[in-house]
Amino acid sequence: MAITPFRLCSLVLFLSCAFVAESKFMVYKTGQSVVPGKLNVHLVPHTHNDVGWRKTVDQYYVGSNYTADEGCVENILDSLIPALLADKNRRFIYVEQASISFSFLLFIFFRFLAENWIEIEANLYISLAFFQRWWRDQSEIVQNIVKQLVSSGQLEFINGGMCMHDEAATNYIDMIDQTTLGHRFIKEEFGVTPRIGWQIDPFGHSAVQAYLLGAEVGFDSLFFWRIDYQDVAKRKKEKNLEVVWQGSKSFGSSAQIFASVFPESYAPPTGFNFEINYGSPIVQDDINLFDYNVQERVNDFVSAAISQANITRTNHIMWTMGMDFMYQYATTWFRQMDKLIHYVNQDGRVNALYSTPSIYTDAKYAANESWPLKTDDFFPYANTLNTYWTGYFTSRPALKGYIRMLSGYYLAARQLEFFNGRSKTGPKTDTLADALAVAQHHDAVTGTEQQHVADDYAKRLSIGYKEAEELVATSLACMVESASKTGCRNPATKFQQCPLMNISYCPPSEIDLSRGKNLVVVVYNSLGWKRDDVIRIPVINGNVTVKDPSGKEIESQLLPIANASLGIRSFSTMAYLGKSPSVAPKYWLAFSASVPPLGFSTYIVSGAKSSASASVRQTFYRSERSQNKTIEVGPGNLKLNYSGNEGKLTNYANIRNSIKAFLEQSYSFYSANDGTEPFISPTDGTEVFQPSGAYIFRPNGTHPIKSEGQVSFTVLRGSLLDEVHHRINSWIYQITRLYRDKEHAEVEFIVGSIPIDDMIGKEVVTRITTTMKSNKTFYTDSNGRDFIKRIRDYRSDWDLEVNQPVAGNYYPINLGIYTKDNRTELSVLVDRPVGGSSIVDGQLELMLHRRLVTEDDKGVREGLNETVCVVDKCEGLTIQGKYYLRIDPLGEGAKWRRSYGQEIYSPLLLAFSEQDGDNWANSHLPSFSGMDPSYMLPDNIAMITLQELDEGKVLLRLAHLYEIGEDKDLSVMASVELKKVFPEKKIIKITEMSLSANQEKAEMEKKRLVWKVEGSAEKKSRVLRGGPVHPEKLVVELAPMEIRTFIINFSRKQGDKEISMSMSTPPKTCPSQLVVLNKAFKLAEQWVKNMSTPLEDEPTDVKLEARPSRLGLGAKVSRQSKIGPSNDPIERKLHAKLDAGKRKSAKSIKESKLSARSGSDNSDDSDEDLESRTKSFSKKRVVPPTSSLQRNKKPK
Questions:
Q1: What residues have CB less than 8 Å from 823, skipping those under 6 apart?
Q2: Tell me, which fold does domain 941-1013+1020-1060 have in CATH?
Q3: Which residues form the Glycoside hydrolase family 38 central domain (predicted)?
Q4: What is the pLDDT of residues 649-682, one digit of tens each?
Q5: If you average pLDDT over residues 1055-1079, what whole number do you get?
């Protein structure tokens, strides 16, 4: 039967009448707003959706692997929209924007395409999970309705990043990047800018989150939950759960934010969780049925509200109405909240209303209250006695290292993408960007996910790296061939890279150079200043020479590769690559490289009849032969002394600055508490069995790790560097390197497989010990940015009751840790996130690895026992990593920590190519700098983002590296001359943006709320900030700790001509129509017409859907393009029926077009026509029954 407009109208009218008939005695008044002078209970409906934890991100989206965990985000979003449409007063907030679902085979396919990347025009679709993924699966009608919900404030995006990132194991650059991706999507699709921070599940909260990812992105408030139980108790008593948080001493009051701590959790108060089968009593208000309980439920509501009001300032409290993966069937929640609002307000003792954090924030601001001031951060976090969440600072160190390595690689790859020009059809950095964004999730980089989920994160990162690797290789090849920006997509030069260089596996460098072949090594520097460093690559033959970019032979050095490194290489290549190389390299070839800023230098390694490289002097020491010897190591200013009888480090000396100090370094392990001895929780009086686990660090004694048998160590001496090799025991190996031109020691450690045959978990630490009188004080970084003062067994906000003297003094370290006395500073920098502390004065401690046999009962349901298998042989995970140490005169350590910290985050990028003959220099560019040859960035400035966006615009971020007062020379205002940073391009427009680049900074500052602080009536000190950028001079000023973000429009210079890269007006596209809800009927009618178009009116050719221009965030896939026939037999059958219906109704549809148009123009539905607005949201699947796991779920 043909669907005519008359029949459609009749159907809608019938359904509307049915709805009214059903609900005429059950109309609930839900439109209440804030009532002055009364306690206002803000009901904030929300769901918390982890982008991976017990299930992978894809499994959480579609609801598969239900035995591992409940949760189906697609169900949540499918049921949410019609529930909001049913009542315009209902509201909802959504946080997690996206994560990526890749097809690994798709990228394997790409690897074997022809030399050119081509545009694939068949089923090339990388789906996005959670909101972005769901969004792209919706029809235009649904999208328009959702846009109206966002525009009206019923649906609000808060936080707005791709995930809810962690705050302990993340670097500030990664936090900014993932937030920027999410904010860009929201701005492009909905035209809104989030104004609320919502970090409700991370396990402790950082100062950088408050001021940088809060105030500097334009947020007015920040909401979270997990702070120390002792802190919570005191804040409840003093009504200080809500504060003004000043996270930066450099920015002072200019970067303050209102911060609200949930009193219990981000779940509703007890008895008001309305998820299916969760057991909370519903509001039974039908007097014709048993168990009528309206007054009882109202009394419960009022009692819970007053209880919370007694610990909260002002007459506004928030109830977080939701929890992990809730709203599988949204109506169950909204139906009960409708009733509660109606009957509670009818009761009149308190005022209940649908709300959002924005509405709540505005109400708090309007109260004109003065708030307590909070400084520093909320680490470490303990939720009860003996339960410190400080183990995850180190958990899964291999994954943490992989994420950090790819973060630096991504920074460099974006620069190269900018220099070579963003490709429309070739490889991009977007896939890696999305994978890295999701990896910042608070159950990803933290190491607190199940093993199969950790594997999934690593796979996504690997896929992203592969595409970015293609881009880097192509970009470098185009640059060395001096090809034009727009004309190079298939260069002749083919570069390879070595992501497994750390385990001495690098096939491109392991070629035979004895037959006239040359190895070309291009070294790229992503930093904004010239860099001199020692390059080390594995080679199979020692008869080699090295030439610099000018063709001059330079000094090099050969060092034998340790057997321990070769053992890891052999096992790991088989485990991860499925191959066992037939030939292993014999040496590390080391040579000095000098690389210009944002540029590269080329070095040629050639075969020779005899080695021109200096071989090291190798000395092997045993304790019985060297009892009275002191062994000095170091080819430069820095000297380390070792005792001959034990092989221990004993002294540190720097000839240049006359520093001499006692210095020891050792290994120990904490035996993990198995949780068999219970204790009584002071928070709720329950009996607790608390073992160490992925989250929790609870040691049960310390055990020094001593050498097994006689002490033996090897010293390798050379002109460029010395190495000291120690076999600590059967599962710990260490190499200490001292470079001629550097004044720090580099310590490379190999730890694993940690033995657990005794069924005792072990948490391995290294300790660096001096005689400094540090007075319990040390300093750790906040997300690689500010350093925060720590005092052992002390908290600034309350009198700490010490119950875990080790775990309770552990802090997250992303950049480094240092301590000092009145004469010197001891600093240690790290290559990945770790936990660390100073448990003893003058000593620094880092936790390097953990292997446990118990689970800590925090929800992950899996012990932290990482293993690697080859065939039927499985071993505990072995990790290789580095840390760096140095002693400076008091007040001088910051220079090294800041500058070398940038070098660790952004290591030199190496690319290799094999070349016949000696004509490379004649046909290739030997070196390059993206900057003016006479210019470098100031020593205190880093370029943390250089990225070409769509339509040729460029995103630039510059960061001042020093805090106010941190260094006498460098904690000052600095200037960057953009004309010299981009000498080959003309800037025709520059706009300063918020940190996440989703709004102009000037507009952001106008809108931000300024909060009153207790005792702040006195004159505030002036905050130093950089001034406006003059459009002609183009000089950017940066004050200490300042990060400035710009969108730049360039024109590229070509001789005397200037070609605009981004200012030409792009082709206009019609934006998606924003449809008022009461007009949705017209769209629905038009949609039905289109569905009924006869086949003879349709094109006969089938056009395949083109590859999106952006594989990841912001991808726009045309919904008008035709897709080929489906292989799904059910779908084919439905299409066949639809086609038959089209033919049959063609004539009647054509005849009714005119009348339909007339009727459409004169018709309008009212707000009561609910069915017509929810018709598009029919369920795609039956909601699965709630499992007992869900009913008994314990919050993490």
A1: 889, 890
A2: Immunoglobulin-like (2.60.40)
A3: 387-461
A4: 999 999 999 999 999 999 999 999 999 999 988 8
A5: 43
Superfamily designation of domain 616-891: Golgi alpha-mannosidase II; domain 4 (2.70.98.30)
394 vs 1179 pLDDT, higher one? 394
Q: Computed over its alpha carbons, how large is the radius of gyration of the chain?
A: 32
- Decide if 410 contacts 437 (C-beta within 8 A): no
**Confidence (pLDDT) at 849:** 98
Burial class (CB in 10 A: 0-12, 13-18, 19+), 120: middle
Q: Which two tokens stand for residue 703?
A: 């055990």
Peptide bond into 1094 cis (omega under 30): no
Angle between helices 1153-1162 and 5-23 (to 10 degrees): 40
Give strand ranges (E) for 831-932.
Answer: 834-837, 843-851, 867-870, 873-876, 879-889, 909-916, 927-929
pLDDT, one tens digit per residue, over 98-145 is: 544 333 333 333 333 333 332 322 222 223 348 988 998 899 999 999
pLDDT, tens digit, 9 for 90 and up, residues 608-639? 877 666 666 777 776 555 567 899 999 999 99
CA–CA gap between residue 751 and residue 849 (Å, rounded): 7
- In this prediction, residues 408-420 reach a mean pLDDT of 97
Q: What is the mean pLDDT of residues 928-955?
A: 95
Torsion sign over Cα 20, 24, 28, 29: positive
The tally of CA atoms less than 13 A away on the side-chain side of residue 573 is: 22
Distance from C-alpha of 177 to C-alpha of 161, rounded to nearest angstrom? 9
Exposed, middle or buried by CB within 10 Å (0-12, 13-18, 19+), for 960?
A: buried
- Single-letter amino acid code for the residue at 1026: G
Mean pLDDT, residues 735-748: 97
Q: Residue 797 pLDDT > 50, yes or no?
A: yes
Considering the chain, tell me which residue range(s) the CATH 2.70.98.30 domain(s) occupy: 616-891
Domain with CATH 2.60.40.1180 in the chain: 496-615+907-930
Pairing between β-strand 373-374 and β-strand 242-246 as defined by DSSP bridges: parallel
Pairwise CA distance, residues 448 & 692, whole Å:
12
Q: Is 99 helix (H, G, I), strand (E, B) or coil?
A: strand
The whole-angstrom separation of Cα 342 and Cα 42 is 14
Residue with tokens 């050119």: 116
Q: Check: CB of residue 236 under 8 Å from CB of residue 1007.
A: no
pLDDT at 922: 80
d(CA 1146, CA 48): 48
pLDDT band at residue 1051, thresholds of 50, 70 and 90? confident
Residue 986 bridge partners (DSSP): 1051
Question: Phi and psi dihedrals of 873, rounded to 5?
Answer: -105, 120
Task: Give the other-Cβ count within 10 Å of 597's Cβ.
Answer: 21
The verdict on whether omega for the bond into residue 1064 sits within 30 degrees of 0, i.e. cis, is: no
Taking residues 378-387, report their average pLDDT.
Answer: 96
8 Å CB contact between 584 and 676: no
**Conformational region of residue 461, where left means phi above 0, alpha means psi within -120 to 50, and beta covers everything else:** alpha
List C-alpha distances in Å: 1050 to 959, 984, 1053.
Answer: 21, 10, 9
- What is the average pLDDT value for the chain, to the nearest integer? 85
The CATH class that applies to domain 496-615+907-930 reads: mainly beta
Nearest Cα to Cα of residue 674 among 756, 764, 767: 756
Q: What is the spatial distance between Cα 1145 and Cα 1139, in angstroms, rounded to a whole number?
A: 10
pLDDT in tens, 494-505: 999 999 999 999
> Which residue ranges does the chain devote to CATH 2.60.40.1360?
941-1013+1020-1060
pTM for the whole structure: 0.86
**Predicted pLDDT of residue 921:** 77
